[in-house]
Amino acid sequence: MNALIASFIRIMAVCSKEMIHLVHDRLTFGMVVMIPLFQLVLFGYTINTDVRNVPAGIVDQVNNSFTRKLIGDLQASQVVDFTKVANTPRELETLIRNGEVNAGIIIPHDVEKRYYSGEGDIAQILVDGSDTTLASAVRALSSFPFSPDQTISNRSRAGSFSVRLLYNPERRSSLFTVPGLLGVILTMTMIMFTSIAIVRERERGNMELLITTPVRNLELMVGKITPYVGIGLIQVSVILFLGVLLFRVPVVGKLPQVYAACLLFILANLTLGLMISTLVKNQLAAMQMSFFLLLPSILLSGFMFPFVAMPKIAQQIAEVLPLTHFLRIIRGIILREEPMSQMMSDITFLALFALVFLIISTIRFSKRLE
Amino acid sequence: MKDIITVSGLTKRFGTFTAVDGVDMSIPPQTVYGFLGPNGSGKTTAIRMMCGLLQPTAGKIEVLGMNIPEQTEQIRRQVGYMTQKFSMYGDLSVYQNMRFMARIMGVYGRGMEQRIAHLLERFKLDTFSRRSAGSLSGGQKRRLALAASVIHKPKLLLLDEPTSEVDPNTRREFWDELFVMCEAGTTILVTTHLMDEAERCHHLAIINEGCKVADGTPTDLKSGIGADICQVQGPDISELRSVFSGEKRILATARIGMAIRVITEKGVEPGCQWLSTFLADYQVSVEPAEPSIEDVFVMATRDNRGAEQG
To answer: How far apart are CA B210 and CA B13, in angstroms?
Structure first.
């Protein structure tokens, strides 16, 4: 019993020491809040596959009520925003090449004849193909249905312009991105914080003293990660608060599930960071290693690209990353209101991952200097 | 009473480099035992093996009647270790550092606060208890490290160059504390390369290039130096350097202010008498001098070098 109390006190000693470090280390402490804040706002707004208001130019060789109606309808689609007027197709090409606009429409002399005859394209759309997302959005205009007169809708010709984007103005990718960001931010910060935790003591010479004390490996490991669990949960709260505030992510009512999933994921990442810390010799190497792991997490986990569309080998690699499993859990909870029982395999994976890495790092950390 | 530390054939190799080479020694209780040697002689490596920080390549270590490495964890509860480099947490306050070490070492509850208060007062740190350890002066840092290393009242205290970087007054006070602890029952092993520290120890082991080259009390070591020490003074001493070189009976010389200290080999004719005749052509006086620990150190480390060259 006494031994147990002594052990608990040693864990608490390490834990409270770590917290003092954290409070003193303003940079790290600032990162706790600033990383979620910046990333969420930046990614939340920029990772957006809905392309809107692409600056565009017009070459109108007719300029009558028919063409004005056509231009007006295209402008109303919000995909393009006609900001420039050119006299010749060549002039429009120059505008695109110079980056003044990203797209443009050329309306030929015989546009009305082409429209009513029902043969061939009525107009030509030019688009800067260097940005594929943008280009595909503009290309979608090729099947945009147009009718010069609202009353004769049966004569509207759907030869070129699609209305898919236009009739789905609320297509919010942020709803999909924010839960993903929750995972990416936690991966980034949790691994980074703990990967330097042990190596820092080694670098500053504290380790030589620490390992001559009776503190046990497991006590040291548990004491070291405990404060970061709290840090992680603070980050989760910041992200969820901003997610609700800025992107209206529906989490209210599912909070206990969300926090439980996050806690599990935080533990998995902390123990992974701890393992890195026992592998490397200095803080720089710890950082490099963290980033080395961060990249596949971002690219392969399903955060960036749809998981099902990835090649088999990439999917297999992704299966060992905690983020992949976390994304399935968290998107399931937030977006689809999936019951927890449906996610048992992912939950089990994260729990085992945390346990295995805690054990590995405890074994790997030798209380010797060599 | 049984020896506190018994070491036999202690060897540590890093790759092809042998840092400690077959050291034997034993430290009786309540002694201040000095480990004297030049930088890189293997002192730190040896002391690190004695507290289980490094695993010996060969040899046996018995500390407080227990074996390393098998009983390292039990030994750690009764041993205090002060590292050469300051290893307390710079961003924690003096008190926070002490509290951390106390809890880790198993001192807690009401006894902890009393113990910390007592030590802070004893080591004159009570007025700095809220200061961050990193902002302390060199002497204060050393006192903090010492206070932390004895928080659990260890039976054995290992100090790795405890006062190499502090001024003589601080060093003097520090050593007074060591003797108070020693008289109270603590055995202390201290490494040093400073002669004045070595002189204070009850017992000295001189280590050079990983080997123990001399062992004894400072008085015994000085009287058993096996050489005659002479002090040469006079207007011509600046010319003597070339005269001394190549002379077999002269083992070592050192310029000390206005005099030259000469270590001469013992012979039938006393060293200084011989030197006096040898330097008859010069305007100098030759007088016998008492051997110092430095002379012992020079002799001990010189022998080893000679052996290596031969």
So the answer is: 10
Q: Which residue bears the tokens 């096996």? A: B226
pLDDT tens over chain B, length 310 residues: 689 999 999 999 999 999 999 999 999 999 999 999 988 889 999 998 988 888 999 999 999 999 988 888 888 889 999 998 899 999 999 999 999 999 999 998 888 999 999 999 999 999 999 999 999 998 899 999 999 999 999 999 999 998 887 888 888 989 999 999 999 999 999 999 888 889 999 999 999 999 999 899 999 999 988 889 999 998 888 888 888 887 888 888 888 888 999 999 888 888 899 999 988 888 889 999 999 999 999 888 875 444 433 3
CATH code of the region B226-290? 3.30.70.920
CA distance B250 to chain A (A): 44
Q: How close is the nearest chain B Cα to the Cα of A215, in Å?
A: 6
Sorted by where each begins, the domain ranges of chain B are 1-78+154-224, 89-151, 226-290
Which class is B1-78+154-224 in CATH? alpha beta
At B196 the three-state DSSP class reads: helix
By Cβ distance, the residue of B77, B81, B104 closest to A13 is B104
Residues of A in contact with B51 (CB under 8 A): 212
Q: Which two tokens stand for residue B167?
A: 């001024």
Q: Is the pTM of this model over 0.90?
A: no
Cβ partners under 8 Å of residue B50, min gap 6? B5, B7, B61, B63, B68, B158, B189
* DSSP structure class, residue B281: T
Does B103 sit within 8 Å of A209, measured CB to CB? Answer: no
ipTM at complex level: 0.78
CB–CB contact A212 B53 (8 Å): yes
Nearest-by-Cβ selection for B81 from A10, A16, A212: A212
